[in-house]
Amino acid sequence: MGGRAGGATTGILAPAKAIHLAAAGISLIAVCYGLARFAYGLFVPAFRNTFDLDATAAGAIASGSYVAYCVGVLLATAVTPRAGARVVALAAGLLATVGTSVIAMAPDVVMLAVGVIIAGSSTGVASPPLVHAIARRVSPEVRDRTQTIVNAGTGLGVMVSGPIALLAQDQWRVAWFAFAGVAAVVTLWSAIAVPAARDAAGESSPGAERTRHRRLPRGLLRLAAASATMGVASAAGWTFGQDLLTTEGGHTSPFATIAWIVLGACGLLGAAAGDMAERLGLGRSWVLLMIALGGSLAALAAASQSAIVAIAASAVFGAVYIALTGLLLVWSTRVFASDPARGVGVVFLVLALGQAGAAPLLGIASDLSGSVAAAFWIAAAVALLGALMRPARG
Question: Where are its TM segments located (predicted)?
């Protein structure tokens, strides 16, 4: 399982081991994205009460998480082919465990920010090794489907974080200690299930020579623009969604948490992104989903007081977000066919840069306008703009 990976079609895992990899992969993504990173948004109301944060400060802390993600994805992209997928995936799990533990014990806002940054870096480290392992060791016939299924782990993590938050209620530290425990278990599992998938020294994948002589692969700029706009648009939902529902929406904290659980559960539907791209084409799928993303954000901005709208828009946001990241993942492996870890690194780096830049700016817009909904109107407009950034073909 940890032998020479070779090109994308050598060293293929047996079906049972491929399923084991997918299960561990979706769990690691669930921990790093759903718990270590995005659960921050679930607890923004509690953090604001405990540490006396305004929207600008909450957005700045979220931005720090996204910046840490960028650093993580750069390092993981560079290291994965040499160190191997297993080592880098293990590092991602350890960062998630440490970061969530620091958040749980944070005595002040500074340590809260430190914990959020460490936890956020785990997401950047997690994706490249899993994409690399699947691209190198999973049969081509099910490769895209496996990639999008593992990517849907974000929805699983978000869904799991909600019930833990409900059980913990006002004791938010208990919830974060629980996140740390889950992260530790999944880290150990990843060390067993993720193959080394290490590229040998001097080894070339098919098409590597063409990539080496083409500094900018065809389609990269359009892919980067799509990733950036999607990152900007989604930042409002992840960072301020709970805040919107409990403040301007007037809903109770348990209701907002239920909306969060629905968001995560529907995010699992994003696993179908690979099949959607096969049936409708990558470009058409992208346009439809970005329009749906904008619609969900606009609905929350316009009618957050309605329980039906709050639940329905959260459900659409969750499903569409995960599906869009799945499309970006598939899109990146086509642009960077000979170097999938690099491709996903570029995509998720630009996505995170969009989120990092947008989170504090949306927080400032909310404070200046006196309305959290302002952030959602801006994000909805960006999502509609992003619908124009479709792939040139497919």
Answer: 21-43, 55-75, 87-106, 112-135, 147-168, 174-198, 219-241, 253-274, 286-303, 309-331, 343-365, 371-389
Comparing CA positions, the residue from 209, 318, 215, 214 lying closest to residue 269 is 318
Q: CB neighbours of 141 closer than 8 A, spacing ≥ 6?
A: none
CA dihedral 205, 210, 211, 215 (to 10 degrees): 160
From residue 234, alpha-carbon distances to 42, 201, 386 in Å are 15, 39, 11
What is the gyration radius of the CA atoms in the chain, in angstroms? Answer: 20
Torsion of CA 391, 158, 196, 118, to 10 degrees: 100
The DSSP result for 46-93, as a single string, is HHHHHHT--HHHHHHHHHHHHHHHHHHHHHHHHHHHHH-HHHHHHHHH
For 219-248, b/e burial (b = at least 16 CB within 10 A) is bbeebbbbbbbbbbbbbbbbbbbbbbbbbb
pLDDT value at residue 5: 34
Report all structural domains of the chain as residue ranges with CATH numbers, in order of start. Answer: 17-200+217-386 (1.20.1250.20)
Encoded tokens for 107: 């005595």
Tell me the pLDDT tens digit for each residue of 27-64.
999 999 989 988 898 888 889 889 998 888 888 898 88
User: Taking the model in full, what pTM does it have?
Assistant: 0.80
Q: In sequence order, what are the residues at sequence separation of 6 or more whose Cβ sits closer than 8 angstroms to the Cβ of residue 227?
A: 328, 347, 348, 350, 351, 354
Contact 38, 89 (CB under 8 A): no
Question: For residues 20 and 224, what is the distance between their CA atoms, to the nearest angstrom?
Answer: 32
Burial (CB count <10 Å: 0-12, 13-18, 19+), residue 310: buried
Measured distance CA(68)–CA(217) in Å, rounded: 26
From residue 369, give the alpha-carbon distance in Å to each of 249, 361, 374, 375.
16, 12, 7, 9
Q: How confident is the model at residue 387, as a pLDDT?
A: 93
Residues 268 and 30: their CA atoms lie apart, in Å, by 11
Helix (H) or strand (E) holding 322: helix 307-335
* Contact call for residues 61 and 86 (beta carbons, < 8 A): no
Q: Using CA atoms in the order 111, 240, 158, 228, what is the torsion angle rounded to 10 degrees?
A: -100
* Per-residue pLDDT tens over the stretch 325-346: 888 988 887 888 777 767 877 8
